[in-house]
Design goal:
The structure is a homodimer. Chain A contains ten helices and four strands; from the N terminus they run βαβααααααααββα. Chain A is an alpha+beta fold and about 200 residues long. In chain A, helix 1 crosses helix 6 and helix 7 crosses helix 8. The longest helix of chain A is centred in the middle third of the chain and has 18 residues. Chain A starts with 6 loop residues before the first strand and ends with a helix.
Amino acid sequence: MHDPKPALDFWYEFASTYSYPAAMRIEALAAARGVAVRWRPFLLGPLFAEQGWRDSPFNIYPVKGRYMWRDLARVCESLGLPLIRPEPFPQNTLLAARVALALPEAERAAFSRAVYAAEFGQGRAVSEPAVVAELIGAGAEATLARAQSPDNKAALKAAGEQAKALGLPGAPCCVTASGEIFWGNDRLEQAVEWALRG
Amino acid sequence: MHDPKPALDFWYEFASTYSYPAAMRIEALAAARGVAVRWRPFLLGPLFAEQGWRDSPFNIYPVKGRYMWRDLARVCESLGLPLIRPEPFPQNTLLAARVALALPEAERAAFSRAVYAAEFGQGRAVSEPAVVAELIGAGAEATLARAQSPDNKAALKAAGEQAKALGLPGAPCCVTASGEIFWGNDRLEQAVEWALRG
C-alpha cells in the first residue's frame, strides 16, 4: 500500500480569460511538485445566471473589464504568451466544453490548451464548430458526435452542478482533495502546495 | 539635477478587506526597492453606486463573499496577520477616511495601519467615532475637527472623483506615475517593480 499521488481538480471555462494563462502553465507547475491535475471543464453561464448576470461581468462592469484586459496583457507578456481578444467576447464555449469532457482524460489537457491558444492567443472564434473540429484534429467527426450525445450533455450539466455545490466563485479554480478552493491564475502555486499537504 | 525618487500611489478604502494585508506590507516592500508610497485614502461607495451596488459586492454575491473570507484567512495566515471579521461588514469608513486625509502625510500611514489592525485584526467597529479618536491618539479632538471641515470633506470627494477618472476597479490599487493600475494585494510586488521603470 502507498499513498495515492496528490492531486487537484482544475476547473476551467473556455470563455474565461484568466483560465487561459492558468491552463497554459498548470500542468508543468503541478508536475514539478509531483501533483496530478484533473482537468474539469464546466460552464460559468448557469452560475453567473444565478447572480443575475446574462453576460460576462467584464462586459457588464466596463471599469472592471478595462482593468482585466490590461492586467491580462501584463500577465501574458510576463509568461511569453500572445494575447488577442476574440470578437465577440465572450465566445460561446458550449461545444468546446462538451468536446473537452467527451475526450479521454489523456487527450483533454492538450485539446483544452489548443482551444485557449486559438481563442486568446490568436483571437479565433472557438464558438464555430469548424474551428473546434480543426482543434480536435484526427477523429473529429466521431468526437463531435460523442460530445453531442445525451450522456455527455448530461455529464457537462452535472459538472456545472458540482461546481455550484462546491461554491466555485468563478474560473479558473483549483480544488484540493480537502475541498480548498483557489480562484484565479494567481493562486495556482498556492493550490499545488496545498494539494501536497494531503 | 537628479531624477526624483520613484513613487507610486497606494489607493485604499478602510472597508476593503484585501486593503488590510496590502496596507500592512506595502511600505516595507516599496522601501526595500527605493520606491516612495503616497497613501491615498478614498471611498469605494460612490464608485460602487455607479455599478448599481449599494452594499459590498461580497455581501451582494454570497458565493464570492464566502470565497473571499476563506482566501483572506489564508492570505493573513501566510503573513502572520490576525483576522477577525468586523460586524457589521462593511463598516462605515467615512470618518476614518476623512481623518486619514486630514492627517499630515507623515502620520497618515501609521494611522491607516492602526485602523486596519483594529478593524480586521481585532474586529473592532471603526465606524464608531470613539474608536477613531482612540486610534488617532494625541490631538484627536483637533484632528477630528479638521477631518470634518468643509475643505477636508471636499478633498475626500475630490479623491473619489480622481479614483473614478483613473478607472480604479476597486481597492487596494497601486497606480504608477505612468498611469499603470495594479489592483489587489496580489499585485503589490509587480506595482513596485513597474514604478522603478520610471
